[in-house]
Amino acid sequence: MKFLKLCYVIFGGALMLLTSCSDGEDGQNGLPGADGLSCWDANNNGNGDPEEDLNQDGNFNALDCVGANGANGINGANGVDGANGTDGLSCWDTNGNGVADTAEDINQDGNFNTLDCQGTNNGDGMDGLSCWDTNGNGVGDAEEDKNNDGNFDAQDCQGQDGLDGEDGLNCWDTNGNGLGDAEEDINEDGNFDTLDCQGQDGADGQDGADGTDGQDGADGTDGQDGADGTDGQDGTDGQDGADGADGQDGADGVDGNANVQQFEYDLEEFADYSFLTLDLPDAIVTPENYAYLFYIQHNIGNLIYSIPGPLFDNQIYAQVYVSFNAENISVEFYNTSDNTDANIAQGDYLKVLVVAIELNNGSKNTENLLQQLKDSGIDVTDYEQVAEYFGL
């Protein structure tokens, strides 16, 4: 908005107003004022000094001028508690009137509680289908008797056998190449078989208790007195004959073996076989209290082999198991080359020999007994040594 400039004059001692007057010329601009100070320039030197970068962001600007937060204000007064909410409805109060109505005693036990809130059982579902009923018609159709045994049952639900897995590796084939490599003949007997799979002998166990000494043999019978000499001539008495020398004492008996028994099983009656089942002898009342050594006699040279172990010509080996529940002994024969069942021809082997040794306080288990025999220099795989030791 532009204003009209008015001029006043004094005339004859009276102030008089003139209608207008012209502006004078503008005066010169004043000198520029001094520069203001930046808010962060606390020492007023016009420079950004390190201590003036208060937020340490590398810049000198208004962000360095922000002061520290003030103290928290006083908490306001708590509000007034509201009124209690409305009580909920009991689950059995189906009409929501807060009253136990007769119709709401669902189970009719005279009480109104959560038992009245349980729903009713639904109807039974449909019967499922038998696993063999492949067409779902509820009938045993001929093609559903998979095993052709005349019955329709779970046996018909079994699928076909899966394919045979790959052949396993022989225990001696340590590199898995399927070949008998020289370094795999561990016992260096020229064969690659389970005998090469046996680990090193474990450390010797503690010595077992000494065995009971056998009874001394009976004293020898005294020699008979010599016959009286004949009377001399002229009535002179003949000299008495010398007394016979006492017989020598019998040799000491071997260690008692009253608790060691040997049993033999005749194999000539068996037809061709790959395993044998032999009954435990009735003479052994408590078979679990005995240790057993097993041997088998071949028809060539009557050679006797230890079981378990390789037999005649190392092509076959035998295993043996004792079942105390079934009270029998099982002997099984395998081909050394591939661990398949080996068929033994009738007459190849003559008999199985079983040495039963009762376990006493000095040999409470089979391992202790075998260790005692080993410490005595007995090779339990050698039947002749065992028989001689026990006087069999």
Considering the chains and any ligands shown, give keywords for the structure.
elongated, mainly beta, 4-stranded antiparallel β-sheet, 2 helices, 16% strand, single chain, 392 residues
Share in β-strands? 15-25%
H/E series: EEEEEEEEEEHH
**Biggest beta-sheet profile:** 4 strands, antiparallel
> Runs with pLDDT <50, length 5+?
211-257
- Average pLDDT confidence is 78
The count of DSSP E runs of length 2 or more, i.e. the number of strands, is 10
- Share in helix: under 10%
> Order of strands in the sheet with the most strands?
3-10-5-6
Instruction: Report the span from N to C terminus.
Output: 148 Å
Question: What is the radius of gyration?
Answer: 59 Å
Overall, the morphology is elongated
| Multimer state | single chain
Number of helices: 2
Class per helix and strand makeup: mainly beta
Short structural summary:
The chain has 392 residues and is mostly beta strands. A hairpin with a 4-residue loop joins strand 8 and strand 9.
What does this structure look like?
This protein is mainly β and 392 residues long. The chain has 2 helices and 10 strands; from the N terminus they run E-E-E-E-E-E-E-E-E-E-H-H. It has a 4-stranded antiparallel beta sheet with strand order 3-10-5-6, with no helix packed on it. A 4-stranded antiparallel beta sheet has the order 4-9-8-7, with no helix packed on it. Strand 1 and strand 2 form a beta hairpin.
